Amino acid sequence: MGATAFGVVLGIGALGAAAGALAAPSLAARYGPGPMMLAALAITPLTQIPLLLASPGLGWQFAIGGALFLQLACAAAAGTTQRTIRQVVTADGMQARMQAVSTWLTSGARPVAALLAGGLGTWIGVRPTLVAGACLLLVPLVVLYRSPLRSLLDMPGSPAVASPSAEAATPPTPSGPTVPHPAVAVDVRHDRSLEGGP
Fold first, then answer.
1. 97: burial class by Cβ within 10 Å (0-12, 13-18, 19+)?
2. Which long-range contacts (CB under 8 A, 24 or more apart) does 106-113 make?
3. In the chain, where does DSSP find H-type helix?
4. What is the pLDDT of residue 158?
């Protein structure tokens, strides 16, 4: 595959990601978030087949481009939906922590995975490594299938926010000395004329 064809294939894949992200809300509303994500994760390993069978030629380049479009569309649809579910079920005060942990796990795993994939490709060859990678794409499918999310037909509601107690709603009283009856304040000024002074 030449440099131009490779760039076109990657561009087609990017269009698939955009299409999947845009279609995710309507697909989740029609089929349910759980079944939609399950179907997307089931299709994803199948999109690796053209890459595993490919040989040089224009036809295979089209096949790889179409497979990449479908793969990234499924990934974007499932990813958009699961991120939405995470944000909905996470309390407002924990949103930043949730996103930071998710980003750390996904982005932090990429360099390690790239190093392992490069080492495995050098050790056993490129095609067997691609087969192993395609098999690993089944792991998210199995995890989701074994979770309660597989039967989620509607987006979950927002977490309940505890209503403030009456004590917390009462405005704080100002600190400082209190005067019991300010209207009856006594004038304690000393009048020297009553003492017979000059």
1. exposed
2. none
3. 3-31, 33-46, 49-53, 58-89, 95-124, 126-136, 138-145, 166-169
4. 57
